[in-house]
Each structure stands twice: as structure tokens, then as C-alpha cells.
Amino acid sequence: MDDRLFRTAMGKFATGVTVITTKVGENVHGMTANAFMSVSLNPKLVLISIGEKANMNQLIKESGKFAVSVLNEGQQDLSAYFAGQIKEERDVGFDTFNEMPVIKDALVNLTCNVHESVIAGDHTLYIGEVTDLRVTDGEALGFFEGKYRKVV
Ligand code: FAD
Ligand code: NAD
């Protein structure tokens, strides 16, 4: 099966956009991801899927922790930046929540300990047990057919 056809098909599933963050010592790292889902209510589990070549993969393995920030409609630029699509290095002013770096003003910040990880093809699925979260009102940044969208 053709890769482009697969991506076109998967792109028909509309999602929000998150930035995953982690910290190893003083090294803070962020990465854009739309492969995020809620898994379980009791215990509270979520799932992210990280490409094997992403720098984030090794860092989560080392830290055993990650945070998820659900982006608001005004944070498209941050999504492009943490996807490596804006080349200049920026000094991102992360917020700290439950001792983890998170994106300021996001709709949701949640922190997790890795509960389980599963290698699945060229990605690793990280199931995280949610240790804390906070929610802010606002509109979501949407992603559909490979483009950012307003959620209406
Ligand atoms: P890098 O390329 O190393 O970092 C990304 C960018 O963030 C770089 O510019 C880096 O300089 C900057 N950066 C990171 N940390 C900091 C910091 N502390 N201070 C300042 N700058 C910093 N890939 C997946 O594996 N899973 C997904 O679910 C997924 N979803 C995506 C959804 C969308 C909408 C998009 C656009 C991309 C998605 N990607 C996904 C692709 C992924 O975001 C990129 O491939 C990413 O560049 C790979 O991550 P990395 O850890 O190697 O990041
Ligand atoms: P696109 O058309 O490449 O993506 C559409 C959909 O295809 C995505 O929402 C995702 O569900 C799926 N997809 C894309 N690349 C994938 C991959 N390597 N592994 C598994 N699923 C994948 O959209 P785009 O705007 O061209 O994406 C920008 C960049 O971000 C591309 O390099 C893309 O590969 C990457 N991306 C990766 C993932 C992922 O790894 N899960 C998800 C989204 C985007």
C-alpha cells in the first residue's frame, strides 16, 4: 500500500493538536503530536505515539515521564515550531506544572508517568498514568487533511 494514500486516509480523521514535553535533568524538550487519546478512566490513562527517530522517544525512555499540552486556536505557530517546521531556535517560555515543563495558555496541561510502552512498527506507544491536570477555557486548534483548522 502506498504511504501517501495511507497518510491521506489517516488525515481524514480530524484531531486536535498537542505538544508533548519532557525533561531529563535540566534538558527540556518539546514535540508536536496529534496521536493522542484518552484510554482509561480508572485508572486515568492516556496514550501518545512517538516516531522511533524522534528525539522525544529516547528522552521519554530516560525520564519515564511526559506532559501533554492541548493547543488552543491561537497556537498554530507553536505547533509548527515543535514539529521542526520553523528553523530558527527560539527561547520558549515554558510554564511549570507539577514539576514538568508545559505550554502556557494551552487548553489542557496534564502530566503523566509512563505506565507501559509498546513498540508498534516504527513508533512507540506510551501509555501514561495521569498524575495531575488543569483545564482552561478556549477554542481548540484542529488538524484535518494535513492542515490546521478552526473547530466549529
Ligand atoms: P525535534 O525536531 O528535535 O524538535 C522539534 C522542534 O522543537 C525543533 O525546532 C527544536 O529546536 C524545538 N525544541 C524542542 N525542545 C525545545 C526547547 N526546550 N526549547 C526551544 N526549542 C525546542 N510525530 C510523532 O511521532 N507522533 C505524532 O503524533 C505526531 N503528530 C504530529 C502532528 C502534527 C500536526 C505535526 C505537524 C507533526 C506531527 N508529528 C508527530 C511530527 C513531529 O512533530 C516531528 O517529526 C518532530 O520534529 C519530531 O520530534 P523530535 O523530538 O525529533 O523533535
Ligand atoms: P500528513 O498528510 O503527513 O498526515 C496526515 C495524517 O497521517 C496524520 O494526521 C497522521 O494520522 C498520519 N501520519 C502522517 N505521518 C505519519 C507517520 N510517519 N506515522 C504514522 N502516521 C502518520 O500531514 P502533514 O501536515 O504533511 O504532516 C507533517 C509532518 O508531520 C509529516 O512529516 C508527517 O509525517 C508528520 N506527522 C507524523 C505523525 C505521526 O508520526 N504519528 C502524525 C502527524 C504528522
TrEMBL record:
Flavin reductase like domain segment(s): 10-150
InterPro entries named among the record's database cross-references: Flavin_Rdtase-like_dom (IPR002563), NADH-dep_flavin_reductase (IPR050268), Split_barrel_FMN-bd (IPR012349)
GO biological-process terms attached to the record: pyrimidine nucleobase catabolic process
Keywords: Oxidoreductase
GO MF annotation: an example: FMN binding
Record's protein name: Flavin oxidoreductase
